[in-house]
């Protein structure tokens, strides 16, 4: 965890540090406020949240009087925490309400890190003593099923897969069936993310959802977004949210960007919390999203 924090801090702190430096200027003139705004926009915080934060900061700095570094730091910390949100339930739901395994569907555009995230999540669950079945329903990308199976073998989870180009819904159905037969605790289903036609995606994910629900409730739908893709990622999020009810967001490749503001933007966009973050390609590089640790990493 310490290592993850350090990595997050390395990649993120240009935003918070930049803001602190700007707020510490002797004269907080209009140009400086504009620079603060720019810093936030560049970090992908989004237009509205940026405006809100700048308004709040202006107001609070005005009543501060003397601006000691300590004052500024705690003020910025509070406001960033408010922006990121501390009231969301960020727990990934892997327990079923029914007497069946918890079922988690992982969706997102290819290349965002869906399969890797599914594997890492399996690892966390198995380490926690839960038995996991993986469903390789990404039959679009040729290597996806092999990749997932490799993860499964590595962490000790059985992978249910079908023929290449086979029907994702039938694999998802089989995976849940297998999970029930084995008395598994959790079934994780990796899906394909073809975005070129919305109806195609809708048909496919809708069908996966429907067949899974024949066995019991779908407990969590995680949308995987690549944090380095900025506005593009937000557009993807919008399309997926129209197609299926997203219950949580996984932001991957947060290690590869200083644009941590995407956390704020995507939560606003979907009204759904970031629950997990990917901080690298390795098996241990998936972490629960903790607002306080995140904001502390931002400020450095
Ligand atoms: P999928 O097509 O969405 O299933 O994507 P993959 O799981 O195959 O991941 C695509 C690439 O992104 C792979 O090279 C992964 O190792 C890499 N990747 C996934 N998550 C992360 C992350 O959190 N950080 C970094 N740096 N790379 C990641």
UniProtKB/TrEMBL annotation:
It is found in: Cell membrane; Cytoplasm. Keywords: Cell membrane, Cytoplasm, GTP-binding, Hydrolase, Membrane, Nucleotide-binding, Receptor. It comes from the Bacteria. It is a peripheral membrane protein. GTP binds at residues 108-115, 190-194, 252-255. Residues 273-286 form the SRP54-type proteins GTP-binding domain. It catalyses: GTP + H2O = GDP + phosphate + H(+). Its EC number is 3.6.5.4. Part of the signal recognition particle protein translocation system, which is composed of SRP and FtsY. Belongs to the GTP-binding SRP family. FtsY subfamily. Involved in targeting and insertion of nascent membrane proteins into the cytoplasmic membrane. Acts as a receptor for the complex formed by the signal recognition particle (SRP) and the ribosome-nascent chain (RNC). This is Signal recognition particle receptor FtsY.
